[in-house]
Amino acid sequence: MEFLTSREELRGLYKATHERAIQKELPVLDQHARGFIRKSPFLLIGSSDGNGNADVTPRGDRPGFVAVLDDRTIAIPDRPGNNRLDTLENIVAEPSVGLLFLIPNMNETLRLNGHARITADTNLRERLAVDGKLPTTVVVVQVRSVYMHCAKAFLRSNLWAPETWPARSEMPTLGEILKDQIAFAATAAETDEALADAYAKTLW
């Protein structure tokens, strides 16, 4: 198998970029980007450690959980997780990030690229609290570019079409997966029960 090694080789296989696809990229958050972020309950963060190791992690909460601080700045609360801190440690090492915002049942997405920093500022954490529970830290992203992404990937995948979804029973539970992957003393059922308890008690 041969691989492409230059931009020229790559570009030679594709049509020229449509002018509209270039013009849609903005340096600030306009009213449409702000509105999309306010309605989005879910996003993906792409980051890297600067040494060639990349990572993508999900962030989800009630719609509007990401705060728009101004037309060039957003704030993402860090809710309780597994404390691997993959994204946060990457940001400390290399602040460039790429974000993809989703809204359920909407095929278009919002892409945002920027420069991220992490703060434990009390006022900002209090602003982003849920039921009195403050995030441990907040990721503040300075916008470099933002634009809407077309619907083709979602149309091809039928992502929001329930009739195309596989039955959950066709996949093993997380407890079953972890039991096979890691030498846990606990049974798969015990792991699933512990996970359900953690989900119920530590979402925020």
UniProtKB/TrEMBL annotation:
<protein>
    <submittedName>
        <fullName>Pyridoxamine 5'-phosphate oxidase family protein</fullName>
    </submittedName>
</protein>
<dbReference type="InterPro" id="IPR012349">
    <property type="entry name" value="Split_barrel_FMN-bd"/>
</dbReference>
<dbReference type="InterPro" id="IPR011576">
    <property type="entry name" value="Pyridox_Oxase_N"/>
</dbReference>
<dbReference type="Pfam" id="PF01243">
    <property type="entry name" value="PNPOx_N"/>
</dbReference>
<feature type="domain" description="Pyridoxamine 5'-phosphate oxidase N-terminal">
    <location>
        <begin position="29"/>
        <end position="150"/>
    </location>
</feature>
<dbReference type="InterPro" id="IPR024029">
    <property type="entry name" value="Pyridox_Oxase_FMN-dep"/>
</dbReference>
